[in-house]
Write a structure and sequence with these properties.
The chain is an alpha/beta fold. A seven-stranded parallel sheet has the order 3-2-1-4-5-6-7, sandwiched between helices. It is 44% helix and 13% strand.
């Protein structure tokens, strides 16, 4: 078990998929959580109910991360309503899954404004509240290091975020705040099922076979790594993007 009792966290995209699993794992270990979402009220309320079973003072905060003013108000609101802010987890992402040759300016603007601009604004605003022992964690994906059809825009944004993790680590390090990324590789979420479509099962089986462990992770296993970084004992880990992919990115691509 992790000992994070009394801490407060803000998770962007915190009501579905890995964000939801991370929120529940943090709550189970004593963290009060502010769950950000954009529009799906039903999923948000269901996620909040699950989190409040362990952290009854947790809250929802609705905000569009493409809007700088909304991002800053979200962070300030979370810190005010929770009474403090110790952990920022940047999990939200959105893009148009299109080949770069077909990408339009608004596809680029939406992806980079939300993923990159939203991250910068959230960290800037959070830096007003994070003290010694504070944590910033950015959730990345395998498209930052591997070419995936239709992922060119998002992969570029994730690569930019991994670079910013290193820079923010040095800017916030003197305050005792660590900044790290978690690259989740291939995981089973609503987004991956939507993207893969009818090929989901086949591609999932192929990815699992190429992992060193011969299987894909559960969302809870990835969330546990995020929580591990939040532990006080992880205070010397910073500026890193940790691959939590079961060895998928290291395997020989032609192996059977």
């Amino acid at each position: 078990m992790f000992n994070l009792k009394g801490k407060a966290a803000l998770i962007t995209g915190g009501t579905r998929g890995l964000g939801r699993a991370t929120a529940i794992t943090l709550a189970r270990n004593g963290v009060t959580v502010a769950l950000n979402y954009r529009r799906d009220d039903e999923s948000a309320n269901q996620a909040l109910g699950a989190v409040r079973e362990f952290a009854p003072d947790s809250i929802l905060i609705k905000a569009d991360l493409e809007d700088d003013a909304q991002v800053r108000a979200m962070v300030a609101g979370a810190a005010t309503k929770l009474g403090r802010l110790d952990i920022l987890i940047a999990n939200a992402a959105a893009t148009a899954f299109k080949p770069l040759l077909e990408a339009k300016p608004h596809h680029l603007q939406r992806t980079f404004n939300l993923s990159v601009g939203g991250f910068i604004a959230a960290v800037q605003e959070s830096s007003k509240y994070l003290g010694d022992g504070g944590r910033v964690i950015m959730i990345s994906g395998i498209d930052s290091i591997r070419s995936l059809p239709g992922h060119g825009i998002l992969g570029a944004a994730k690569s930019a975020l991994e670079s910013m993790v290193r820079d923010f680590a040095f800017e916030l390090g003197p305050r005792g705040v660590t900044v790290n990324g978690v690259n989740v590789g291939y995981i089973d979420t609503d987004s991956s099922r939507f993207y893969m479509g009818a090929e989901f099962e086949e591609l999932t089986n192929r990815a699992a076979a190429r992992c060193a462990l011969g299987r894909l992770p559960t969302l809870e296993e990835v969330a546990a790594v995020v929580c591990l970084i939040c532990m006080p004992e992880a205070s010397y880990l910073t500026g890193q993007t940790i691959m939590v992919d079961g060895g998928l990115s290291l395997g020989f691509p032609l192996a059977k």
